[in-house]
Write a structure and sequence with these properties.
This protein is α+β, with helices and mostly antiparallel strands. The chain has a single domain, classed as Jelly Rolls (Sandwich), CATH 2.60.120. The strands form 2 sheets. Strands 1, 2, 3, 8, 10, 11, 12 and 14 form an 8-stranded antiparallel sheet that branches. Strands 4-5-6-7-15-9-13 form a 7-stranded antiparallel sheet, with no helix packed on it. Strand 10 and strand 11 form a beta hairpin.
Length: 248
C-alpha cells in the first residue's frame, strides 16, 4: 500500500514537472504607467495566466484558453483600467487581433502604455497573415480632457517573438490621434504568413479623466487570381469528362 502511494506521488510530481517544463509564454499584455509601475501578464501554452511586476491591484482570470481574450481590470499607479486583448483564436478572420481600452481613467496628467502580443498565427493560434494589414484606430477622450491623444503602432514577426519586432507600415507609422478621432490604414505585410503580432497604444492624458481606445489589426485575405479560377474551371471540366467516359 505504501509503495503504491509513493508511485502515485512520484507520478504526480513527474506530471507537474513535465507540465512546467513544457510551459512557455504564447500571449502577453504589458501595462506601464511610465512612472515606475510596470505589470507583465503572461499566458502560457497550457492556458495559465501569471503576472510579474506591479500586479497587486490588477485582476484577471488565472487560466484561459490559449490564444483567446485576455481581460485585465484594476489599478496601476494613477490609472484605473479595463483592458481586453483579443487574440488570434478569438478574432473573426480576417481580423487578427483587437486591443480595447474600454475605460482608462487617470487621476492627473500622465501617459499609459499598453502592449499586447499573441503568437502562432498560421500555426494553429490564429489566421494567416495576408499580403497586407489593415489597421483600424479610435481615440475617444472625455470632454474635460478633449486634447488627450493616443499613439498606435503594430508589429509583426515571422520569428514568433514576444513582443513582435518589425513595425508594420514603417516609416508612415506609428500614428497619433488627438481628441475624438479615428483612422483606417492599410500597409504591406513586411514578412511571411505566420508568426507573432503586437498592438501598442501610448495614451497621453492632459488631466483627470478617461480615454477609450480601440485598435484592430486585420489582414487582406488572399483572393485567387482570374487565371487560378480558370485552372479550377478546367480541372472541374476534365473531372466531369472523365466521369462521363467511365459511365459510358
Amino acid at each position: 500500500m505504501k509503495l503504491t502511494f509513493i508511485k502515485i506521488t512520484v507520478a504526480a510530481f513527474a506530471f507537474v514537472a513535465a507540465s512546467v517544463a513544457q510551459a512557455s509564454t504564447i500571449e502577453q499584455l504589458i501595462l506601464d504607467d511610465n512612472a515606475g509601475n510596470v505589470a507583465t501578464i503572461d499566458v502560457d501554452n497550457l492556458g495559465f495566466v501569471t503576472c510579474g511586476g506591479a500586479c497587486g491591484s490588477l485582476t484577471f482570470s488565472p487560466a484561459i484558453t490559449p490564444h483567446t481574450s485576455l481581460v485585465v481590470t484594476g489599478t496601476l499607479g494613477q490609472f484605473t483600467l479595463n483592458v481586453t486583448g483579443t487574440a488570434g483564436a478569438t478574432a473573426i478572420y480576417p481580423t487578427l487581433q483587437n486591443l480595447t481600452q474600454i475605460n482608462a481613467a487617470s487621476q492627473t496628467a500622465g501617459t499609459l502604455t499598453t502592449l499586447f502580443t499573441d503568437t502562432d498565427y498560421c500555426l494553429g493560434g490564429g489566421g494567416c497573415f495576408g499580403s497586407a494589414f489593415d489597421l483600424t484606430l479610435t481615440n475617444n477622450p472625455d470632454t474635460a480632457i478633449k486634447n488627450s491623444s493616443t499613439t498606435f503602432a503594430a508589429y509583426a514577426d515571422s520569428a514568433n517573438t514576444i513582443p513582435a519586432g518589425t513595425l508594420i507600415g514603417a516609416p508612415s507609422t506609428p500614428t497619433t490621434l488627438t481628441g475624438v478621432s479615428s483612422s483606417d490604414q492599410s500597409y504591406m505585410n513586411p514578412g511571411g504568413p505566420s508568426g507573432s503580432l503586437s498592438s501598442l497604444t501610448n495614451t497621453t492624458f492632459t488631466g483627470k479623466g478617461s480615454v477609450q481606445t480601440t485598435f484592430q489589426i486585420s489582414t487582406v485575405a488572399e483572393v485567387p487570381e482570374p487565371s487560378t479560377f480558370a485552372l479550377f474551371g478546367l480541372g472541374a471540366g476534365l473531372f466531369a469528362l472523365g466521369v462521363r467516359r467511365r459511365k459510358a
